[in-house]
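S1.2 Input.
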Amino acid sequence: MNNFNVAQSIAPNSAQTQHIKGGNSQKLKVVTFNYLPSAYKFATDWIRENGHDHILAVTSPGIKTRATPSYQDVLAMVDKNVSAIATSKMKSVLTPILHQLKPDIVLCFTFAHRLDAELCQIPKYGVVNIHPSVLPAYRGPNPLRQFYDGANVFGATAHRIADDYDTGDILSVESAEMPAIITQNISLEWGNLIKKAIANGMERAISGKPGIIQDHTHATYASPFVDEEKWVNLNEPSRMVLCKTLGLNLAGGLAKTTIQGQVYKIHSAHHVSSDTTVSAGTVIKQNNGIYQVATADGIVKLVTEPFNPNKQYSHVLPFSALFGQPANAEQVLLSAQGASGR
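S1.3 Output.
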């Protein structure tokens, strides 16, 4: 793992904290912590929309057990007028920098490192972390399990940092009921909930309002998907086929299944009908990689390609879909055919 511990771009804004005209809101000095480009965009959108000053973008190649190579994509997104640093050394490198910069607040959304009490006490308004689930459910590194499991609700939470991951006091929680029929477009609604959690959580932190203590008795942990979980079983009900496909593909294009004895990568799954007259696993029709297949309680449309064990798949509808437009099965197929593994 590359231990990249130098500043990537040194050109900080010189603007000082000041009042924005026409209101009582302050122009704050904000530091961001992200390793996913989409999370970085959420954070910087909030900064821009509220007229704050982005003084430092922090990212990291991760830790030995959780490498985060997408940090390089984050660095490529940083505006030339914003300083950036990629480091895995929180104590010796990052903490002294923050002491020097004296930020007003830190917005953390996707970061592999634990932030200790000293670092969290540096910003005037502390550190706000965004966890894209309805805490205390689905704590941990894989909140995409809320979709995989077909949880009753999905959403996002803004919370304070505590000793253990995702356990701090809640500043804002935004949620919606999981629909009976899962579609690709649920990611758009999820994106809106994340934006609301950021906006409301940051407002609460800046106003000095206390958070709500999490009920740890209702906590669940979301571990990474293991190999056997990456198989979608067509003998299950349609809802579980849709849920598992979405959760796995948002996690990195992981969904696969067996159709007529051949293994396929599933790019997306779509509800067709609740027809139960056909045995589960039966192929109703197929055309250019799009299959209509019977499940335990209906028919689904699967956008596929033959699975290649030597190919490193990337998700066709990645986190960037949170900013895009609804996609139908044919659009997904075109995207899949043009996608290259990375």
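S1.4 Remarks. Residues 168 and 336 are 39 Å apart (CA to CA).
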